[in-house]
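Much of the work behind modern protein science is quiet bookkeeping, done one molecule at a time. Below is the pair of lines this work produces for a single protein:

***
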Amino acid sequence: MRNIIIFDDNETRRQLLPLTHTRPIAKIRIGVTTIAEKWQNMLGEARYSWLTASYLQEKFPLLAEGTNLMIAGHVLPSPSLAKQALALGEGEAIIDGEQVIAFNGKPEDFDNRQFTQTHAPAEQPSRINKLYDIFELNSKAICDDFALITQGRKSQPIPDTATVIGDASQIFLEEGASVDGAFLNTKKGPIYIGKDVEIMECACIRGPFAACHDAKVKIGAKIYEGTTLGPFCKVGGEVENTVFIGYSNKAHDGFIGDAVVGEWCNLGGGTTASNLKNDYGEIKLWNYSSQRFERTGRQFVGLIMGDHCKTGVNCMINTATVLGVGVNIHGSGFPRNFVPSFMEGSSNAGFKEVNLKGFFTIAERVMARRGITLTDTDRKMYESIHAIAKKYK
């Protein structure tokens, strides 16, 4: 069986913090699936493992052999690119500029960039190099995933109680999905409704849109194009061009747009996160790699939220706010645009460090609601992130 290692480009991983604090790059969801799932679907049966940050390797182990197919975790594959990667001979690599996309050979040759032959990619691939690439590429990724996932398959029937605007063939319902009384608009792109997803009555959905298994869209929600709900996410209010990686809730009113929300997050009722400055100017976003706010060249950037973050009722979030892992915001006023991991408080009362023991207690409760256990390996990972976070405080 072929041995495939999905690797993190180190600089790209730093650019994608805080999301990559808790996962390899390829575990980020964009479109319907994670990047890793896209590669796995196209490369086929193999033994897959990860080359990532050292403190993540226990949770995401590396299984190296004498010869391995190395795949860049920040690159979104196409069928032609996957086919090209599978055809690589011993020592050959696919390189775009200075970035290695795929390599087939010995680990030491990969480390030393010793290639017998290099090839340009069969087609220019999409890739996530910055945090905002995730939501900017999400609409296209949904369309690409929809075409592959639904090819040769038949959707569950759309109930008569649902209102379809546009081409009904661009709606796909998996087994157990419910859209009774919902409004589904496919004029700008497809709508994918995963297994056991519930779209409640009077919810308005505009494609491209994806809801992964067991997600819920609340009554009267307004969901605009470019939005992905990962597994078990529960969403209400107004959402636009946002990726929820999984297991997170924004169940009540309030707006979020041009944003990325990690796993195990909860946005309290009425929480609203701005995605546009009042002067309509260029947005700066906190960059973990440079440890400063950097220009994005963009007018719309919303909330970037690491795993296990919480906001209280009626919280107000400034444009382009970055929250690390385990951040708890409450109270009135706008918090600063960057809150390091494991901090809690408000702009008025100030912030203090989150106690890890208390964090683990809450995380256990949150995860148990979805039948998932906080393991000792998870605890070690969060302890490492807690230690890393101290330099940003």
